[in-house]
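#onboarding

Welcome to the new folks! Below is a worked example of what a typical request in this channel looks like: someone posts a single protein sequence, and someone else replies with the predicted structure as tokens. Don't worry about understanding the tokens yet, we'll cover that in week two.

Example request:
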Amino acid sequence: MNLADVPLDYATLRVIWWGMLGVLLIGFALTDGWDLGVAALLPFVARTDNERRMVINAVGPTWEGNQVWFILGGGAIFAAWPFVYAVSFSGFYLAMFLVLAALILRPVGFKYRSKRPGTAWRARWDWALFVGGAVPALVFGVAVGNVLLGIPFRLDDDLRTYYAGSLLGLFSPFALLCGVLSVCMIVLHGAAFLAVKVERGPVHARARLIGSWAALLSPLLFAIGGLWIARANIGFHITSAVAPDAPSNPLHTTSLRLAGSWLANYSLHPWFMTVPVLAFFGAVLAFAGIRRRFEGLALGGSALSVIGIIGTVGLSMFPYILPSSIDAHSSLTVWNASSSPATLFIMLVSTIIFLPLVLLYTTWVYWVMWGKVTTNEVATNPDFY
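Example response:
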């Protein structure tokens, strides 16, 4: 298949897949996000064994399926944005290993926690589940912070990647701020989910208390991050002519670091402001829902906040996907780092066919598995963890 055979122009396909990547990341944050949040909350909202089992079984039936969004996101990056995949997965190798090691603790913790009745045994696995929830949330946020700052990589004339960073170098003050924001966002989402899924009692009350604090801290940290970007030397700007239909080659684009560039899109497209506003509005709704015991409102508000926070990053950086902090001319954008038109079109057709099926199946699973987990069920249901 050549370009003439593709019914959509190259620029449109690139924008569609830029948006699709955002959809997949948001889908992961919304579904697996409450799983991570619940795991991070486990040692703090549940004190007895039955309470902890109730928390675990709130996400027990669905947590495995939610990880599909993570796999789909990685696959989309590999197929649609090969340059981005090559740079990020090689440069962030140690960080990705840390995330995967933490995520591995979740299935092991779920399966092995109840294999022995000992208090110490179960407590260790509870903390392993906490690590499996909190560490990925922190590292994902730190990664986003580093993307906003720029990644220390460059491309040579043969488009080979050279990464000059280190694992500890990822944890700069701004990146840590983004990491803490990510944890607060995920904890809020997990607390709102627990408020919906567990019976009213001690666990419900503790989840509401922690969720209330997370609902206050998330927009505060989000605002601090925005002010930091506005005042610091953070941002990149394309100085060469933009050719949305040109073949992918990052070296054909020239860029420079320019303070405040991440805010320029909001002047060019004022409607973009609705997305960061959504982040604040969602947190307010979540706080009101938690305090008023409107659990559905709290979960919906936290979901809107997640969409707003992640969407703000994407809209602020457009058309950049992965800027370089040591060689701005190596930066990867929507226009210079994608796969071929044929590849993008074939992937789009496949997505149009299969993504609705995934959404329908996921919706059906949640419909069947919905309902509150109670202490009585924990004590009597042999299928529970």
